[in-house]
Amino acid sequence: MKAVAFTEQGEVDVLEYQEVEQPTLGPDEILVKVKACAVNYLDIHARRDRPEIKQKLEETGAPHILGSDIAGEVAEISGEHPDLAIGNRVLLAPCIPCGVCSDCINGYENLCDTQQLLGFQTNGGYAEFVKAPAENAIWMTSSTPFVETAALPIAYLTAWHMLVTRAQLRAGEDVLILGAGGSVGSAGLQIAKFVGARIFATASTDEKLARAREFGADVTINYTDVDFSEVILEETDGRGVDVVLEHVGAATWEQSIGSLAKNGRLVSCGVTTGNIGQINIRKMYQKQLTIMGSALGTAKELRKLVRLTELGLLVPIIDRTLPLEHAAEAHQLLESRKNFGKVCLLP
Q1: Does the pLDDT of residue 141 top 90, yes or no?
Q2: Could you give the CA distance from residue 330 to residue 284 in angstroms, rounded to a whole number?
Q3: pTM of the entire structure?
Q4: DSSP letter string, 227-272
Q5: pLDDT of residue 69
Q6: Between vectors from CA 333 to CA 329 and to CA 337, what angle results, nearest 5°?
Q7: What is the secondary structure of 148-213 as a DSSP string?
């Protein structure tokens, strides 16, 4: 089969469109013919320098195939799974949990210490075919576009878990979405709109801010020009916002906390600009702020997102689609932050 893979980490030129062996199924696995695979910034980290990928390359000596956001058709089934049939349209839940730890048993598989991720510890969807545990298959209706559904597993699931599950964003509240043009930011923008919040959005260009307004942002801020926390306070008469969706890290940490209202909640899922951020502890307890972390989400939440997409209540923002062999171009788009929404590869 054809796939985009690499045998050593580095810049985009390590990605090679090549012929590789089609996966062989183990017990209770399915083979999926990939119809769409979305690209994530995690793919870029994996390609560049993530130690887990380096270890896998060294141990196996085989090319690694990226891709965690996968939608397609069931091509082969191993084991007895009466709920699945050849030709079923499915989305693959990206997390492969152990299934036996207390977190998994309690339905919090995104907290499993030994979980794996499709396209990270395993080969993924930058290919014509991918294998996955049969239990990871989530049914799609015949009318749900593969490209839109493939956008859901990492970015939309992460944003949903942040805003709805962790921060419990409510209708009528104010929310600040950082980096509204990126995958998680644009997903958060749509989810906040669905919830019924008033949305403040930041981006680095006026073009992206205009797009953010098209998709529901009420107030937009170019973070390269101003301290966005000052704009937030001005626009809210000094009150601040109820929730901040933070995925940037050190560069925006103090401004993000400074944007919060009393009883405000900051939820963070990423540190692309650094792991260490300072906080004024006195202001934190005086304003009774809540600072919380968030990582991916659960299969139950992903099924909810698929259902909302099927009903047309969420329409994932797709920046563009590219042929699989143009995976390097997709990586360059994300690295240069030229995309607004998801970039998807089509085998």
Answers
A1: no
A2: 40
A3: 0.93
A4: -HHHHHHHHTTT--EEEEEE-S-TTTHHHHHHTEEEEEEEEE---T
A5: 97
A6: 170
A7: HHHTIIIIIHHHHIIIIIIS---TT-EEEESSTTSHHHHHHHHHHHHHT-EEEEEESSHHHHHHHH
